[in-house]
Design goal:
Shape: elongated
Oligomer: single chain
Biased composition (Polar residues): 1150-1166, 1187-1196, 1226-1235
Biased composition (Acidic residues): 1216-1225
Subcellular location: Nucleus
Largest sheet: 2 strands, antiparallel
Radius of gyration: 45 Å
Keywords: Cell cycle, Cell division, Mitosis, Nucleus
Protein name: ARM repeat-containing protein
Length: 1265
């Protein structure tokens, strides 16, 4: 059934018959109501022609009344619906209709009650969407682009966040229809979409969402428009060199990709090309943009377009540092958002951590330092190891950030690493090594690094204010540390007693200084000259201690002004707070509270001082382990020993606790003072930790030097330990007993029982001797009553009598005998045969007795000389007291070490040190070159300890310098590091205008020592080896300020003669060689050698001045062979020329690792000593420029030299890696057909061996003394 329009009223006024507005609105409303109900299928369109014609009239579409226009619009929308798809209008009328529609739609922006016709406007919008009337725009040829452009702009202007979802969907649908159905879009329409992605301009989130959804829904249609749009912008900007426009375009691209990545598929190749452009700024922008797009959260670009990923990765090697920096900024997104590509991220960071530009290296460190825990869990080990290297970077800022980053990574990862073994997020092996790596940075000996390490250790590694948690954390860390790192940890903890004394002295001087107004109550009564003298002295002391502390607290340029400023505050309350913090009796909470209070007051005073004093307070207080840690450590020891489940972790932590406990007893015995009653309780009830508690009591007794008071049960238990315990328990129990209030009566009784039981003691002889040694040391008057019997027994029955044959030693030890037992020089302490243990204990007893005698009788020289005779005999006879070599190698090595250490121990006493004559000191010094590594290590460690504690004269520093050829690189570097640090510390202790310190004065002593070395000779190879001693000294000691004195001091050796030797030729040769090496070092370092003005006289105890004429004549002579200078210069030239080849082929020798070396330590055996060759007296009377050039001397030079016993593991001298990478085994016989070539290759091999000046030369054989 055909339906016709019933509406027949006028809506267009005729001439002279206007229609009232209200009436017109009513008629249009009626028309709309009828049109909206009509269906296109049953409608007679002809009935609409009149209405359709009237509705488009200008009088209606431009009517001044909003209601009229609103209803005209909806009626027109109905007409478009009913006539679809062919509206009853021409092109001009269509254009006018859509212009009218857009104006009506613009009013949709107002969806408040003020807009009375919102529903009509929405009706129009919905009709255009559902009927798809908007496609009629395609029929307009003139002005279509303008209308489409306005449509897009209108849509983005209309939409508001508070619009209904229907409005949003209708607008989206309309725009989507245009994009999909039109052949092309005007540029302005595309720009309207793109502009929505500019965050700095777009505040309308609804418009942004509309653009995003449009791009997502029509990505395949918009791709070409976006590619063209941005390509044109970038190309035009390049031509105009408008970098800002390019950067702005890239920001829009990134924003679009973040929301609708598919729309940019055709644009990615453009960005790839931009990363290769010559313009640095455009390449920078492209690298940044592409990096963001690749690794934003949810992005699939890296997988979808691998070429884009590879192009971006290639920018890691960009020539412009800013491009490399920008690339690194994006790497963190990989770890956070795309763990599948962490391998690429690891490679980038690892490579850029070694970038030649420090800004890039620092950026890498910063990126790592800001990663969150999840990102950290994806970090590769290679990156962390490179981060470890950045902790040693030459740039201070990079080092600090790297160290802090390492600490933060561990802090964030610790909780995960200590979780259950069941699928932890972060494997323990990933980050458990970090504390050790940080602690080993202390071996760099740089005060700034040390301060930073201490800060990270306190704030990150051990971060916790709960003492139980902190102890658990510390012990877990100890289980992960190697020996070096653990030693460093104990060194940090052990600084507190010494440094706190320095700080206490500083505070005392600050108090006396009193802001420059010195008044001790009697000051004004003194003469003015005396007042001025006292003021100058206090000022000098203040400057001295401030310089000393500043050197240790970091960069003196920062720390010294802070200390100087603090000294002028005269805040007595602050002084008292710091003194309070020094006490070893403060617990963790007290330390934290007091530290905060001090820093708060300092910050109020001057914020610039906080960093320096935070470091000072950490080092002054017990910041790492406190007195309230002790019970928890003991509890862990107990758990480790009694764990029923024998859980590996519990036992490991228990062992770590026991290890730490023993170390703390040594460095912080005062900390245990408040726990004496608990330790006593552990002893009395025979707890599993009674032995540890007993040792702690012994440490407290020795440190406190006050009488202890134990009840009868405790005393009985102590005596029981002496007679029934092992040697260590007996020793510690005797120490405690010697400090009892009733010590004399108790020890007299114990002494009688012990001495009477010596002849019958078998299994416990070592324990008896250990206990007797402590009584001899602490109660010598009581011991004296039995000393004859005891010393006679020790010497005759223990030291001079071998109870077992050498071949049976391995059988009597606790270890199984092996085929190499005949050559075995060392076993662990618990594997030592009982006889060896007793010999060591007996020798120590004699030393203790002499130490005890020195406290009561300064005149008993017979006892002292008797002991020295025993000790020198042991050293001179390779560890034997009897001439018959019947002791095992194990026994001899132990006796040599014990004798050496005993002599060093006795030398701490000035009276005993005076007994060590020059020739004896030489023999004692050579013990540092013992054939047995463990012997050398123990001697070196004890020497470093005594010298560090300033308990030995400075001449003993030269003993350590004889380690220049130490084959164990780890030990060598530790000794060299100690020498460097000691030289720096001694310089810091002197006034600023005093460049030369005691350590520089040891140079001539070292030359003297070397001139008496049994391996000293005059041919080239011997001098080359001895030059290493001088170079190691210069590495550790020489500076720009001291080089002139060092040169002058060795020059002066030419005007003296050796007081203990018939010939001084070795001395003069070494003097010339030292002068040459100093000049060589000064030239390389660009240090001027100036004339030294002060008078210097070599030590009279070693040298005697020549007569004036002889001295002048001798000074002009050249004792250093010209062959040495020539060969050395030749080798240096070869090293420079061959360096590129080595880098290409990997040539450089095989440095023996500590692990491989230790594996063969037990197999090292001493060679029989040979007599030292001495030059004739006549050789002193003439220069020896041609010495060492004869065929005989050349033959000898081919044999490397060492001291007695020094058969050392090293790489073969006759194997060299050639440029083609092949290993060629060389014949050593120069008479072969290829001998010339082989000698040349051997020379290269020696050159390669010397290439790294930081590596000690490995001595592989020995020369006759």
């Amino acid at each position: 059934m055909v339906v016709r329009l019933k509406f027949n009223q006028k809506i267009f006024p005729s001439a002279g018959k206007p229609i009232a507005v209200s009436e017109l609105v009513k008629r249009l409303k009626d028309l709309h109501n009828e049109l909206s109900r009509l269906d296109q299928v049953e409608l007679d369109l002809a009935s609409l022609d009149s209405v359709a014609k009237d509705l488009i009239q200008p009088q209606l579409v431009t009517h001044k009344d909003k209601g009229v226009r609103a209803y005209v619009a909806v009626c027109l929308a109905d007409v478009f619906r009913l006539y679809a798809p062919n509206p009853p209008y021409g092109e001009r009328q269509l254009k006018e209709a859509f212009q009218f529609f857009l104006k009506q739609l613009e009013l949709l922006r107002d969806n408040t009650e003020d807009n009375a016709f919102f529903q009509q406007q929405y009706y129009l919008l919905e009709s255009l969407s559902t009927v798809r009337s908007i496609l009629c725009l395609a029929d307009i040829h003139d002005g279509q682009e303008e209308l489409v452009r306005e449509l897009f702009n209108c849509a983005f202007r209309i939409i508001r966040p508070d619009h209904s979802k229907n409005v949003f969907m209708c607008l989206l649908d309309i725009l989507q229809q245009v994009v999909e159905e039109f052949r092309s879009l005007p540029v302005e329409a595309v720009e309207a979409i793109v502009s929505r992605f500019e965050p700095q301009k777009e505040k309308n989130t609804a418009a942004f969402d509309l653009a995003v959804d449009l791009c997502k829904n029509t990505a395949e249609f918009l791709q070409r428009y976006f590619a063209t749009h941005f390509s044109d912008i970038i190309l035009r900007a390049k031509e105009e060199n408008d970098v800002e426009t390019v950067i702005s375009a890239h920001k829009s691209i990134v924003s679009i990709h973040r929301s609708a990545p598919a729309v940019l598929d055709r644009l990615i190749p453009v960005l790839e090309d931009e990363t290769m452009t010559e313009n640095d700024q455009i390449r920078l922008a492209a690298t940044d943009s592409l990096g963001q797009m690749l690794f934003e959260k949810g992005s699939t670009l890296a997988k979808a377009m691998p070429t884009a990923l590879q192009k971006w990765l290639g920018r890691a090697k960009d020539k412009d540092v800013m491009v490399r920096l920008k690339m690194i900024e994006r790497v963190s997104d990989i770890y956070r958002n795309h763990p599948d590509f962490t391998k690429d991220a690891d490679d980038i960071l690892a490579m850029k951590a070694r970038d030649p530009d420090d800004r890039v290296r620092t950026a890498v460190v910063h990126i790592i330092s800001k990663l969150d825990p999840l990102a950290i869990s994806h970090l590769g080990t290679v990156v962390l190891r490179e981060l470890e290297q950045r902790c040693k970077d030459k740039k201070t800022g990079t080092r600090h950030v790297a160290i802090k980053a390492m600490g933060r990574i561990f802090k964030l990862s610790y909780a995960e690493m200590t979780k259950s073994e069941l699928q932890p997020l972060i494997p323990k092996k990933s980050f458990s090594w970090i504390p050790g790596a940080i602690l080993e940075l202390l071996y760099l000996n740089e005060s700034e690094v040390t301060a930073q390490v201490e800060k990270v250790l306190a704030e990150d590694i051990l971060e916790s204010e709960d003492v139980e948690t902190r102890v658990s954390r510390l012990l877990w860390i100890v289980t992960q540390l190697n020996d070096n790192a653990y030693t460093a940890l104990i060194a940090v903890i052990g600084k507190q007693p010494t440094f706190s004394k320095d700080v206490s002295y500083y505070l005392d001087i600050c108090s006396k200084y009193n802001r420059g107004i010195i008044d001790d109550g009697k000051h004004k009564e003194k003469p003015k000259s005396q007042q001025e003298q006292e003021e100058r002295e206090i000022s000098r002391q203040l400057n001295e201690i401030q310089n000393y502390l500043a050197e240790r607290l970091g960069d003196p340029k920062k720390t010294l002004p802070a200390l100087q400023k603090f000294s002028t505050t005269n805040d007595r309350h602050l002084y008292e707070l710091i003194r309070k913090l020094i006490s070893a009796q403060m617990d963790l909470k007290q330390i934290a509270k007091t530290t905060r209070e001090i820093l708060r007051r300092i910050e109020e005073m001057n914020a610039a001082l906080v960093e320096t004093f935070a470091t000072l307070l950490r080092r002054t207080s017990l910041a790492y382990v406190q007195k309230d840690s002790v019970p928890y450590i003991l509890e862990h020891i107990k758990e480790g020993k009694t764990s029923a489940s024998k859980e590996k972790t519990t036992i490991s932590v228990g062992s770590a606790a026991e290890k730490l406990f023993k170390s703390l007893m040594e460095v912080l015995p005062e900390m245990f003072k408040s726990h004496v009653s608990k330790l006593n309780g552990n002893i009395v009830k025979s707890d599993v930790i009674s032995s540890d508690s007993l040792e702690a009591l012994a440490r407290v007794a020795k440190a406190d030097q006050e009488s202890l008071n134990h009840d009868a049960k405790a005393q009985k238990k102590l005596i029981e330990f002496i007679f029934e315990g092992d040697a260590k328990q007996a020793k510690n129990a005797a120490i405690v007993l010697c400090h009892e209030q009733e010590k004399e009566s108790l020890c007299r009784s114990v002494l009688k029982r012990l001495s009477d039981d010596l002849h019958n003691a078998k299994d416990n002889l070592e324990s008896h001797l250990a206990a007797l040694g402590q009584i001899a040391r602490y109660l010598p008057r009581i011991f004296e009553s039995r000393k004859d019997d005891i010393t006679k027994f020790v010497i005759q029955k223990v030291l001079m009598k071998n109870r077992s044959e050498p071949d049976d030693v391995a059988t009597t030890s606790k270890r199984k005998r092996t085929p190499v037992d005949e050559e075995l020089e060392w076993v662990d302490d618990d594997e030592l045969p009982e006889e060896v243990k007793c010999k060591v204990a007996g020798l120590k007893l004699l030393v203790k007795w002499v130490e005890g005698v020195a406290t009561i009788n300064d005149q008993d020289e017979d006892t002292v000389m008797g002991l020295f005779k025993v000790l020198w005999t042991v050293l001179s006879q390779e560890g034997e007291l009897v001439r018959e070599q019947t002791s095992s190698a194990i026994c001899r090595s132990r006796m040599r070490v014990t004798a050496s250490l005993s002599l060093f121990r006795l030398a701490r006493n000035q009276r005993f040190e005076a007994h060590i004559e020059n020739n004896q000191f030489i023999n004692l010094s050579l013990t540092i070159q013992d054939s047995c590594f463990q012997a050398r290590e123990r001697i070196a460690n004890k020497l470093m300890k005594y010298i560090h504690q300033q308990k030995l004269p400075i001449r003993f520093l030269t003993v350590l310098m004889l380690s220049a050829h130490e084959p164990e690189r780890e030990l060598f570097l530790r000794i060299k590091s100690f020498l460097t640090r000691k030289a720096r510390d001694l310089r810091a202790q002197h006034e600023q205008n005093q460049d030369v310190t005691l350590v520089e004065h040891t140079f001539v002593r070292l030359i003297y020592l070397l001139s008496h070395h049994p391996d000293m000779g005059l041919d080239y190879e011997e001098l080359r080896i001895f030059s290493q001693y001088v170079e190691v000294f210069l590495d550790a000691v020489a500076t720009k300020q001291t080089i002139s004195f060092l040169f002058h001091s060795v020059q002066r050796l030419k005007i003296v003669r050796d007081i203990t030797s018939e010939s001084s030729q070795y001395l003069y040769t070494l003097s010339d060689m030292a002068q040459y090496l100093i000049q060589e070092r000064a030239k390389v370092s660009q240090w001027p050698i100036q004339s030294y003005q002060a008078e210097y006289v070599p030590p009279k105890s070693l040298f005697k001045l020549l007569k004036a004429n002889l001295a002048q004549e001798n000074a002009k002579k050249t004792y250093l062979p010209t062959s040495f200078v020539t060969q050395r210069q030749l080798e240096r030239v070869k090293a420079v020329l061959d360096a590129p080849k080595r880098r290409r082929s990997g040539v450089g020798g095989n440095i023996q690792t500590a692990t491989s070396a230790r594996a063969t330590k037990a197999q090292r055996t001493p060679n029989k000593p040979k007599k030292r060759r001495k030059p004739s007296v006549d050789e002193d009377n003439e220069a020896t420029s041609d010495v060492g050039e004869s065929s005989d001397n050349s033959a000898k030079a081919s044999e490397p030299v060492v001291r007695r016993n020094a058969k050392r593991q090293a790489r073969p001298d006759n194997v060299v890696e050639l440029d083609d990478g092949e290993d060629t085994q060389m014949e050593t016989n120069p008479s072969t057909a290829n001998g010339k070539k082989q000698r040349k290759t051997a020379s290269v091999a020696r050159e390669l061996e010397d290439m790294d000046s930081s590596e000690p030369i490995l001595i592989r054989a020995r020369k006759a003394r």
